[in-house]
Amino acid sequence: xxxTPLTMTQMMKRAEMFFPxxxxxxxxxxxxxxxxxxxxxxxxxxxxxxLTKLGVEKGDRIGTLAWNHHxxxxxxxxxxxxxxxxxxxxxxxxxxxxxxxxxxxxxxVLLVDPDILPLLEKCASELHSVKAFIVMTDDKELPETTxxxxxxxxxxxxxxxxxxxxxxDINENDPAGMCYTSATTGNPKGVIYTHRGxxxxxxxxxxxxxxxxxxxxxxxxxxxxFHVNAWGIPFAAVWFGTTLVxxxxxxxxxxxxxxxxxxxxxxxxxxxxxxxxxxxxxxxGSYDLTSLRAVLCGGSAAPKGMIKxxxxxxxxxxxxxxxxxxxxxxxxISTLKSYxxxxxxxxxxxxxxxxxxxxxxxxxxxxGKDGEVAWDGKEMGELAxxxxxxxxxxxxxxxxxxxxxxxxxxxxxxxxxxEEGFVKIVxxxxxxxxxxxxxxxxxxxxxALMAHEAVFEAAVVAVPDAQWQERPIACVxxxxxxxxxxxxxxxxxxxxxxxxxxxxPDDILFLEEIPKTSVGKFLKRTLREQVQKEVQK
Length: 537
Ligand code: AMP
Known about the structure:
Residues 445-521 form the AMP-binding enzyme C-terminal domain. It is built from 17 helices and 27 strands.
């Protein structure tokens, strides 16, 4: 067989050649913007030309701090197709972490949405590698900013070559993208995506038993384009000629419902918090969402009740999936096998609320106390994955050795697997709390609390939350002499300047002691159960 390289340039060119009339609908700060893949391809070439003129070379990292919109989509293709690396930056992180990420990746240029400029200004003086800032604005004029040198995205495009030709010498194993993921403690860790990985992951998104995305779809990724490439949906959609709907900044459930109705969205994807919000909106208003053939849900466990309401009350098919930044992300998806159709509805729901079976192309093993676990839906072990779209290391980071061994990625997720191969996540070994699709490090909160003069010990655990899936609760043992004197409010005030608002624990419980393992580690599982009982009282 021929050894042709799997590069993103062929994805872009396919949309340009075969689907020039298909549309990208994008909600920006000033309203709904529509253009065709022909226009998108031309602007993508223009952006690549502009970046070349600014001195961007093969292998350079180009950061984006942006919402889901058409300009971000252009960057998604212009940057990798010119041989540079698309580095999407999570704008929900703290300014310190954002600054660390930009410096660690050594981003040469940053493409920034106007509303994110103030965030960037906070750390601009510490950015060592950035040579240019480009503002992706609808306005004719550049906003006022202290960042320099600063360029206007549209102005740059006007002055560029619409016939720029992408280099032919890209190797399929060259880096195309990168994204940082939160760590148990300390700075986020970088993951590099290669051209080959992105192409093969996109194929998986197109499989009927995978994402099932096709040309006939109208796909709306609600998951941010700064979080694992919006689960790779923009890449796959462009390649397949799928109509894309990008919901833009600060959307509400109402706005999403309206977009689904007016644009006749067929497939959409996001974290459970988004879908819980949409369900609430559906109860309040009247919308026609009959166009939807799939709601993809991942990032946190999809509650059974939610799946049931979508399917039984609203007749909207729901697909539960699992993945992580390190896995591009699609790894598991919960689709019933044909012969499981005859099971009763409750049994089917039980299976479909699991994280699912392995996507073709990947391999898994689940390692328990005594080696690989039995496929009995009971024995627990850590999920390990390998395959062509699974990362092999963290970028320039010694924490690689914690998660990658013998050619496998150890996910830190504790799971069971049943007789049919459906995997269910039961716990996490990583001390992270996932609130509304974003991570909170319990270890960082604990360290901060233990730096308070009154605190002897502190452990932070996740409790289930109807809206956010998980929220942090802190358990604190006060030092003798401070008991009865130091209050919850004192500790909250102490934490506030150190963390983003949504990191602050919802409650602080004062305990006599924190349960520990035989080696003195916090017994988080026991503590979690204890706290849950306390919270329910
Ligand atoms: P991230 O790298 O931020 O996308 O987070 C990946 C992690 O989110 C996984 O390791 C899991 O702990 C969690 N996760 C992702 N999908 C699911 C899911 N469907 N159910 C439960 N947890 C999930």
